[in-house]
Design brief:
By secondary structure, the protein is mainly β. It is built from no helices and 14 strands. Helices cover about 0% and strands about 60% of the residues.
Amino acid sequence: NFDQLEYQLVLIASPEEGGTAEGAGSYYYGESVPIQATPFVGYIFKNWSGDIEYIDDPQTASTIVTMPDINLTITAEFEKETSIANTEDIQLRVYPNPATDKLRVSFNAIDPTFVSIYNLTGQVMEIKHLKGKGRTDVSFDVNEFNPGIYIVKIRVNNMNLIQKVIIHP
């Protein structure tokens, strides 16, 4: 008869004012642990660093850590959002605004893209990873969202584009 040992998963947000990292705690060897990095408004998630060999995808804000038989320290890296002056080629459309049941996002992409919706506290409401190139259209079901102002962030062509939307289901 033996006791199974627990190992510590320590999560750090860097910089601290950039966002939060959730999922820290004590876990058993082999346990699959969901972790989530959530940027605050004005920041974006860059990647995970530290003991990343145990992470399914260190480039994704929401991923899984498979606990080894050691303690881990993993850092969610955030960076300040940069505003983009030249966005004519992207031809971004976010509509309708205000949205009631579906919110549509349309743009030109040359690289894999992330489209995410955040509430004003920086919580990710929904994120979609799109691999297509050229004209890209994506829709979000927002009829379950609380009424309010939301931020749509499009990571496209190595740029971040931000647009505020009103959702009133």
